[in-house]
Write a structure and sequence with these properties.
The chain is about 55% helix and about 15% strand. The protein is α/β, with parallel strands linked by helices. A 5-stranded parallel sheet has the order 2-1-3-4-5, sandwiched between helices.
């Protein structure tokens, strides 16, 4: 019974069906399936299939977004129950969009994909002053900081944040990744970032690589 319910959850995530994921997750909880098992065997495995199909060209960005939203719906059902269980995260990531930039779609997709791959993620939101990035590094002590900039007029804020981290003696304590439409590897190299994510999947792969996770 539990295996069938987990399979239903997995397939609903693959289909990007938010209502079905919610329904089957609730049924699994009611049937006594452990929240962590629902997470790992249903929701996470489902989003892994979505990621594989995206990488192979069978799925496209809308499918990726739907899958992530469906998984998020399932997590919303079990999250209150997960607090009573010890959940091991792969790592802690803090992410935000720089000051002067209100774009958040790409950032939010990266956040969903990181969460679905087992990362603990803190979202600073948009239009975040450089000093706030630094202050939050001190407060939250993330292993990775993601800095998003979608406008050519705001990309220099990424450089400014890295320089502030250096000034505060924090740069060697955290990995910095950057992303956004105008961003490329050459810019990442120029400003001393630890990496650049072209899209949500490459951002997840980059985070795993920086933390030595296979």
């Amino acid at each position: 019974m539990s295996q069938e319910l987990l399979k239903n959850v997995l397939e609903a995530v693959v289909d990007g069906d938010v209502e079905a994921v919610t329904e089957f997750t609730e049924k699994a909880v009611a049937a006594g399936v452990k929240p962590l098992e629902i997470l790992n065997e249903g929701l996470v495995k489902g989003i892994e299939v979505v990621g594989e199909r995206f990488a192979e060209g069978d799925y496209f960005l809308p499918d990726l977004i739907l899958g992530a939203k469906a998984m998020d719906a399932g997590i919303s059902v079990i999250e209150p129950l997960l607090t009573s269980e010890k959940r091991d995260f792969l790592g802690k990531v803090m992410i935000g969009t720089v000051e002067g930039d209100l774009h958040d779609i790409g950032k939010n997709i990266v956040i969903m994909m990181l969460k679905s791959n087992g990362f603990e993620v803190f979202d600073l939101g948009v239009d975040v002053p450089s000093k706030v990035f630094v202050d939050k590094v001190k407060e939250l002590k993330p292993q990775i900081v993601g800095i998003s900039a979608l406008l050519t007029t705001t990309v220099n804020k990424q450089k400014e944040i890295i320089e502030l981290l250096q000034e505060e003696g924090l740069r060697d304590q955290v990995k910095v990744i950057i992303g956004g439409a105008p961003i490329n590897q050459a810019w990442a190299d120029k400003i001393g970032a630890d990496g650049y994510g072209e899209d949500a999947l490459s951002a997840v792969a980059l985070c795993k690589n920086l933390l030595g996770i296979k």
